[in-house]
Amino acid sequence: MELLSTSLIDWSRAQFAMTAMYHWLFVPLTLGLGVIMAIMETMYVRTGNEQWKKTAKFWMVIFGINFAIGVATGIIMEFQFGTNWSNYSWFVGDIFGAPLAIEATLAFFLEATFISIMFFGWKRVGKKAHLTATWLTVTGATLSALWILIANAWMQYPVGMEFNPDTTRNEMISFWNIALSPVAINKFFHTVLSGWILGAVFVAGIAAWYLLKKRDTEFAKQSMRVAAGFGLVSSLLIAWTGHGSAQQVADKQPMKLAVMEGLYEGGEGVGLIAFAIPNPAKESYNDGVDPYLINISIPKGLSWLSFGELDAYVPGIKDIIEGGYKEPDGSTALSFAEKQIKGKAAIQALADYKKAKKEGNETAANEYKEALKANYSYFGYGYLDTPDQLIPNIPLVYWPFHIMVYLGGWFVLLFVVLSFFVYRNKDIENKKWLLWACLWTIPLAYIAGQAGWMVAEIGRQPWTIQDVLPLQAAVSAISVKSVMISFFLFLALFTALLIAEIRIMLNQIKKGPEDSH
Questions:
Q1: CA distances from 316 to 176, 250, 332, 461 (A)
Q2: Contact 63/34 with Cβ under 8 angstroms?
Q3: Is the pTM of this model over 0.90?
Q4: Average pLDDT of 468-483?
């Protein structure tokens, strides 16, 4: 695996990040809106009320518009693994490719099979058959997310694999360890719930627009009722999965947690930041500069959030680099320098093994193989030069994390208030302040989703696979110019698709439910 220029790495990262961020504009709405429209159709089948059918069909059209654009961006993103990250694909393709293959053969075909019945089968199949097709389409979309998130979680916490020095590839030894990884399970529920919240916010916001315009009020109130209840449940559940996510990060990615909190020096009983402003003058983890301009913390909150104990030890950035503290399993944490030595030893052992095998020296080859196995956990550190490379971009992790948390609190408050007025029949159409709040929360829900992925992905840097494969060893050996050109081509394409989707959806919303079928 050849180490390549910083410019190539940065442009390749930028292209994939841009593709992923555009893709995530469409996926969460598909996940959330799918469940909401299925609930509405279920109400129609149970009550026989034609108004529920009209409501469900309207949101189904919006779902379809969004679904089509999301598929286009997703396909391009998968191709980039082969074009821009070929070393990564070679090194772990046997493992990473398995969930993506299952997603394509199982989940995608489930969606493709039943989505046509859902859209065109209203007059061709019975009510219950159509409802089944709708729920199966939603299930397919959710299963697509499951397998993709399993693949992503494996990058955060690589398990169920064994390195084969003969092929220089990681090979799967336990599919179920990968699929049922605690990181994967938590990531799936947390991510899907974020999509549900976006769907609920979107439906509530559009319904609020109709009420502000004093049109299609029965449709709007039905939509608002479903969105309020669904959003409240989802926003409460995501607080629980968020807590689980913090514990997983604390256990398996301590550097990410330290950067999320801007924690340079850890300790026992560490406080949880309620509000703080990082000090831009802080340039290095050991420069002695105060990391915060303002810091308001909840005493011992981070220790409890991370490990369930008020006095638990939480390492900071400096501690992780210098090592010497006790890990949760009781072992002593290695310093960056010690990990780097082990990583270089693993890389050298692999080269020596290859040479010995080529020369037919099996005795030496076996010795080198054992040395490789003993040090492989730190393989990726052998490609790093300085401890500063271990530290992700702190502002790009710290601020998105706290913005996501603050917005999560706002969503809970909004849905509590909305549910009170909707379910107590408090003339929601006359509460203009609340309707405007619902409408302007739509972009905030998108921001929260994007912020969550920034924390997950930027917080993992410099790793494509945690501790095993850094960015510079994963990128394809292609020209920087070709990556730059394709970046701007994709940017133009995705922007055009986004503009087209927004215009089509706005036109459909302006037409209203009467013209949606």
A1: 33, 11, 15, 16
A2: yes
A3: yes
A4: 88
